Amino acid sequence: MISPAVFRINVLSGLTVALAMVPEAVAFALVAQVSPLTGLYAAFIVALITSLFGGRPGMISGATGALAVVMVSLVATHGVEYLFAAVVLMGLFQLVFAACRLGKFIRMVPHPVMLGFVNGLAIVIFLAQFQHFKVAGPDGGHTWLSGLPLYTMVGLTVLTVAIIYLFPRLTRALPATLVAIVAVSLLTLGLGIDTRTVGDLGSIAGGFPSFHLPQVPWNLETLRVILPYSLILAAIGLIESLLTLNLIDDMTETRGRPNKDSAAQGAANVVTGFFGGMGGCAMIGQSMINVGNGALHRISGVATALFLLSFIMFGSTLIEAIPLAALIGVMVVVAEKTFEWGSFRLFGKVPRADVRVGLLVAAVTVVVDLAAAVVVGVIVSALVFAWEHAKQVRVSSREGPDGRKIYDVEGTVFFASVAGFQQQFVPRDDPDTVEIDFRNARLMDHSAIDAVNALAERYQRAGKHLSLRHLSRDCTELMDKARRMIIVDYHEDPRYRVADDKLA
After folding, report:
1. pTM of the full predicted structure?
2. Parallel, antiparallel, or unpaired: how do β-strands 433-443 and 465-469 relate?
3. In what residue span(s) does the STAS domain sit (predicted)?
4. Rounded CA gap, 46 and 380, in Å?
5. H or E element: which one contains 469?
6. How far is CA 151 from the centre of its chain?
7. Which of 258, 317, 372, 380 could form an SS bridge with 368, CB 3.0 to 4.6 Å?
8. Taking a C-beta distance cutoff of 8 angstroms, is the pair 242, 102 a contact?
9. What is the pLDDT of residue 227?
10. What is the pLDDT of residue 504?
11. What share of the chain is helix, strand, coil (3-state, %, to 5)?
């Protein structure tokens, strides 16, 4: 049973998150060139379904900017109905991903990539707030606020940030973010301060979302149009959600369920596509607000969704009166708390390659998008890992009691290290009898097996007798020319797997 205090914290946190989600959902809808209600319906449906059935209680999902920037091209070219169809297909791809139980692979994302992702996303959240300091000009463009309107916005933003940081020193009975939003809103209304509000982004008034079959031709041509977008949207949504899940796991020292969350996200996107929503995924900013408030139950996400629906149906007038500066202040604090400031202390204490990977991922996250950043980070990390391990193969030699030459190999022999491994042997300079001992080495892939076969062939051509010791049974099965040179010792030979399709 959940105690009344925990229930109150989760419900109030849900209210706070819902208030912060409104301008984000509206702004992302405008980025995708769809109506504000399209973004709000997505926020409601995705938040509700993922909160009820997802694998990470406390994580908040909804319409996001990472997806909106991909959607805009489809909407501009083919219209919003094609977007709804693409969101449905996106959800189906995510359901297939979950059915194949591929969520576990998110655990393979290296820590430097996670740091870069978090820091890059914090920068993106912070920079995104500056768009609210622009207004539409008479020529259709956007210009920066200036004079008193600018000073008012900045002052209210600073006041919001100050309340969020100072209020917990008085009491933690109420979420500081909610107190800040309410206090700044009452201040502007009470003093009649003229400043930009949520209503300036567009009306959020509407009814309950209704079933809507995408009005597109259901044929192969439509599939050809939406397929690339759906694949990209599905990948971005899953990557952002699973990385956010990992981040919350680390913060709370608990364990989420990636496959269950992927399935819930897929189902949510299928539903939202049929109810006029733009789809969504995990929102790291809102999730950080929720977790920071101590709300780690599904109640908080469900409350967020229900509050969003109530804003749309009943409370649009009140919500539209909230100053944008109050919500900007909340997101500035989120960005500050999301950024891993401790990563600066790692300079000089961790390998330079890890630092460079983190900086690269952060930069790509800011300049391109999250999905590209993670893919680039994982590839670069893998290449760095291969390069570093390739340099760790060592070969030493000694003379045996019967005059034979014995090579002792240490390290991992694989595709990146085979060239250096082969260069250690010069058959023409060796005596007639040579032995290579792999007791402290591992042959990890087919490239390593080929390297040993090639080495055996070199010794054969030189007329030398070569023996191979302490190889795994897998290696023996895969050897060709070198098989008869292997000395098998079932008591001493190691047992490990070699990555090769032939063994399957």
Report:
1. 0.70
2. parallel
3. 402-468
4. 33
5. strand 465-469
6. 36
7. 372
8. no
9. 94
10. 47
11. 65, 10, 25
Radius of gyration of the chain (CA): 29
Structural contact between residues 233 and 70, judged by C-beta atoms closer than 8 angstroms: yes
> Which structure tokens are listed for 213?
């079959």
Structural domains present in the chain: 4-346 (no CATH), 391-503 (3.30.750.24)
Surface-to-core class of residue 330, CB atoms within 10 Å of its CB (0-12 exposed, 13-18 middle, 19+ buried): buried
Q: Which residues, 6+ apart, have CB-to-CB distance to 384 below 8 Å?
A: 353, 357
Look at the block and give the residue holding tokens 């790509």: 364
Output the DSSP codes for 57-107: TT--EE--HHHHHHHHHHHHHH-HHHHHHHHHHHHHHHHHHHHTT-GGGGG
The DSSP H or E segment spanning 124 is helix 111-128
434 bridge partner residues: 405, 466
| Residue 176 identity | A
Q: What is the rounded distance in angstroms from the CA atom of residue 329 to the CA atom of residue 68?
A: 23
The low-confidence residues of the chain, meaning pLDDT below 50, are: 503-504
- In terms of DSSP H, where are the helices of 193-294? 220-252, 258-274, 284-292
Q: Under the phi-then-psi rule, with left for phi > 0, alpha for psi from -120 to 50, and beta for the rest, what region is 235?
A: alpha
Do 329 and 160 meet the contact criterion of CB atoms below 8 Å apart? yes
Per-residue 3-state assignment (H helix, E strand, C coil) for 389-452: HHCCCEEEEEECCCCCEEEEEEEEECCCCHHHHHCCCCHHHCCCEEEEEEEEEEECEHHHHHHH
Q: φ, ψ for residue 438 (rounded to 5)? A: -105, 25
Q: What pLDDT does 26 receive? A: 80
Contact (CB, 8 A) for 112 and 354: yes
9, 303 Cβ separation under 8 angstroms: no
Retrieve residue 420's tokens. Answer: 């250096």
Angle at 277 between CA 273 and CA 281, to 5 degrees: 85
Structure tokens at 150: 């600018």
Q: What tokens appear for 79 in the block?
A: 């219209």
Q: State the pLDDT at residue 140.
A: 66
Q: Report residue 407: phi and psi, to 5°.
A: -100, 130
- For residue 361, give both structure tokens: 């991922």
Residue found by looking up tokens 């192969």 in the block? 220
pLDDT of residue 402: 82
DSSP state of 499: B
- What the block records as the tokens of 298 is 């599904």
Q: Which amino acid is located at 339 in the chain?
A: F
Within a 13 Å sphere around the CA of 320, how many CA atoms are in the beta-carbon half? 15
Cα distance between residue 243 and residue 236, in whole Å: 11
CA distance 160 to 73: 36
